[in-house]
Amino acid sequence: MDKLALFNSTAHANSSYSNLKTGWNVKVYQKIKEGDKTRVQVFEGTIISRKHRNEPGGTITVRKVSGGIGVEKTFPLHLPTITKIEVTKKTDTRKSKLYYLRDKSAREIRRKMKTQQNPQENKEVSSA
Questions:
Q1: Residue 14 has pLDDT above 70, yes or no
Q2: 54 φ/ψ angles, rounded to the nearest 5 degrees
Q3: DSSP structure string for 28-74
Q4: What local confidence, expressed as pLDDT, does residue 27 receive?
Q5: Confidence band for 10, pLDDT divided at 50, 70 and 90
Q6: How many CB atoms lie within 10 A of CB 19?
Q7: Tens digit of pLDDT for each residue in 71-98?
Q8: What molecular function terms (GO) are annotated for this protein (predicted)?
Q9: Tell me, what's the pLDDT at 99?
Q10: Do strands 59-66 and 69-76 pair parallel, antiparallel, or not at all (unpaired)?
Q11: If 64 and its partner were Cys, which of 39, 45, 48, 74 is the partner (CB 3.0–4.6 Å)?
């Protein structure tokens, strides 16, 4: 077994982010270093894509609308600066990539997605 295959099989075998799905609303807590200070920045939005599921290069793309402007961030799941990913709302979707949400209004998005369960009853937190 070569070194790359050995790293891929052992380093990230038990990922705590394997249960994230597209359509869910999440809060991503990321450490930001500014000068000599370190703080935690929270990015809250909807997961619109998930690529390379449980591989070391796996990513999620999170979208939110801030001040009427859509903002998307792509987070590598195994980034050491991500402290935790908190699921705030679960919804059922029929597609694995929700790129069509870029062209929809907030009302159309709410109508398109069905809420799966109450977020206060079952709040999940994934820590790295």
A1: no
A2: -105, 15
A3: EEEEEEETTEEEEEEEEEEEEEEESTTSTT-EEEEEEEETTEEEEEE
A4: 97
A5: low
A6: 10
A7: 999 999 888 999 999 999 998 888 899 9
A8: structural constituent of ribosome
A9: 92
A10: antiparallel
A11: 45
Residue 125 has what pLDDT?
A: 65
Torsion of the alpha carbons at 35, 37, 39 and 41, rounded to the nearest 10? -10
Is residue 113 within 8 Å of 23, Cβ to Cβ?
Answer: yes
Q: How many C-beta atoms surround the C-beta of residue 72 within 10 A?
A: 14
- Hunting for tokens 């450490």 — which residue is that? 31
Name the DSSP letter for residue 94. Answer: S
At residue 20, what are phi and psi to the nearest 5 degrees?
Answer: -70, 140
CA distance 81 to 49: 20
Q: What domains are defined for the chain?
A: 20-127 (2.30.30.790)
Integer Cα distance of 18 and 80 in angstroms: 16
